[in-house]
Amino acid sequence: MAHIVAVIDIQVLLGMKTSTSYDYLLMLPTEVQYVWQVKWGVGKVLYLLSRYPLLLVSLVDLHRMTSHVASEKECRVLYTLIYHTMAFATMISEVILIIRVWALWQRRIWVIAVLGSILIAGMITAGIVAEGALRGVDVISNYRVVSLSYPACLNVGKGRRMSIVLYIIIMVNGTAAFLLMIIDGIRSRRYLCHGFVQNSSMMHTFYKDGLLYFAALLATSIINTTVSLTQPLEYANLLLSAQTSLHSVLSTRMLLNLRHSAQRDISDVNSVADPSTYHRRHNITGLRFATDTDSSTGTA
């Protein structure tokens, strides 16, 4: 069983690293324009924390897969770094998605209270479970003595609890945010029916990307939870990297797409003084990185 897990582990990881690297290179010009050229702010910090830790830990994971010799102690250090970075990046991505929904609901206290409570409870639970799971890890080191196609380290131990709890946290938080988006869309249907979205490329992007991204993340969480609960123990964490990579890619893409769309709406918003446009202006203000006029402040 272990040798099958080893082969699948390498194939899944290489596939995710390749897709993540491709997405990074594809979006780099947009990132330079909308992230690197504005001063520091909450939006920029969250973007970088969601994007770059996973890119850096990919090098650690490549070392784990390609190293010819690794002691059990080194393997445990590698897995600890990899798992904690994945959990951290996933939670940052969840924070980004929560802030987007909060802004859509005009920064209402109860919205951030509900979503924030779910996230904080999940983070505490995930931290406790992760520590317990890592202490129970059974690592096969020096696996290359069997075949050079196998990784130097392979976790075939008790990491099932960590992955299941992480997936459930993502499902609960994602479901709550997804429902809030649906409710807001229904609540704002009079704006939608009268050209609100058609006249705002940013709001069109938010609803389109947001609904698709939340649906995709929810679907992958359900699949991963099902795999962890129904398949042998060795397969529990095989799709963990896929889940975290998808979170990072989708959340950062949402920010970049929103910033790009908001850029086209700013002049129109600034030129309209009608009080009936407050809802639209307020949402755009809460969803952008920074406008051309306030980029010096790095507004989130």
TrEMBL record:
UniProt keywords, alphabetically: Membrane, Transmembrane, Transmembrane helix
Record's keyword annotation contains Nuclease: no
Transmembrane segment boundaries: 81-102, 109-130, 164-183, 210-229
Annotated organism of origin: Pleurotus ostreatus
Domain DUF6533: 21-55
Protein name: DUF6533 domain-containing protein
Short name of any one Pfam family annotated for the protein: DUF6533
InterPro entries (UniProt xref): DUF6533 (IPR045340)
